[in-house]
Amino acid sequence: MTRAVGVLPPRRRAALLGAAAEEFARAGYERASLNRVIRGQGMSKSSFYHYFASKEELFDAVVEDLAQAAAAALGAPPPEALAEGDFWSGVGDLTARLARIAREEPDAMRFAALFYLSDAPAGAPLAAVRAAVDAWIDRALEVGRAGGAVGDGLPLALQRHLAKAVVWAMDEWTVANAADLAAPELAGLPEVQLDALRRLLAA
């Protein structure tokens, strides 16, 4: 399909991507209604296809915008910074910051919902974000092992697999159940996640 070449004015683009983010997060990718998004913005289909070649291209634009906003809000340090102080305190600070952003920034929770969509297309923006998260975890484990905060009794590849399984499973569960959790329960989840990681990985 030929790529669309039009450029939406910034305000209209932000409104369209915001509506699309809501729709994708609520319904998933496959069941999301492009027609509902377009109608809600007062656009015709022909007008939409002037700016986006497909539903998937719209999804990729939503992911890219939300990922940039989430990264800016989080301000995650490079993994090497964890070697400068207490490793696990640094990890705890990061998990607490993630939880705070999720509570205070609606776009962060929308992004998390898209990140864990089981039917999301494997487009470049989402794949890049997932690869970046994996790479950060990989490097953080290496830093922790080098400093003695993470045990070396297991192969590094297995530690990576276990750490990602814990982090992703707890985050995905939180996203799916956030609306049913009381504020104190949500606030306590980062500590639970940190404790699980320490039990699994600490020296």
Give a quick precis of the structure:
This is Transcriptional regulator, TetR family. One of its GO terms (molecular function) is DNA-binding transcription factor activity. The chain is mainly alpha-helical.
Q: What can you see in these coordinates?
A:
It holds the Pfam family TetR_N. Keywords: DNA-binding, Transcription, Transcription regulation. With about 200 residues, the chain is mainly alpha-helical. It has helices at about 10-25, 35-40, 45-50, 55-75, 85-105, 105-115, 125-145, 155-175, 185-200. The protein has 2 domains: about 10-55, Arc Repressor Mutant, subunit A; about 65-200, Orthogonal Bundle (Tetracycline Repressor, domain 2). The chain is built from 9 helices and no strands. Helix 4 crosses helix 6 (about 105-115) and helix 7 crosses helix 8. The chain starts with 9 loop residues before the first helix and ends with a helix. The mean pLDDT is about 90.
List the SSEs and their pairings.
Elements: H1 10-27, H2 34-40, H3 45-51, H4 55-74, H5 87-104, H6 106-115, H7 124-146, H8 156-177, H9 183-201
Helix pairs in contact: 1-2, 1-4, 1-6, 4-6, 4-7, 5-6, 5-9, 7-8, 8-9
Percent helix, as a range, is: over 70%
- Unreliable spans: none
Indicate the radius of gyration in whole angstroms. Answer: 19 Å
The total domain count is 2
Helices and strands, in order, run as: HHHHHHHHH
At the fold tier of CATH, the topology name of the largest domain is Tetracycline Repressor, domain 2
Morphology call:
elongated
Number of DSSP strand runs: 0
CATH architecture of the largest domain, by name, is: Orthogonal Bundle
Strand content: under 5%
State the secondary-structure class: mainly alpha
Amino-to-carboxy terminus distance: 53 Å
What kind of sheet is the major sheet? Answer: none
- Give the helix tally: 9
Query: Average pLDDT value?
Result: 89
What is the CATH C-level name of the largest domain?
Mainly Alpha
InterPro entries: Homeodomain-like_sf, HTH-type_TetR-like_transc_reg, HTH_TetR
Organism: Glycomyces sambucus
DNA-binding region: 33-52
Keywords: DNA-binding, Transcription, Transcription regulation
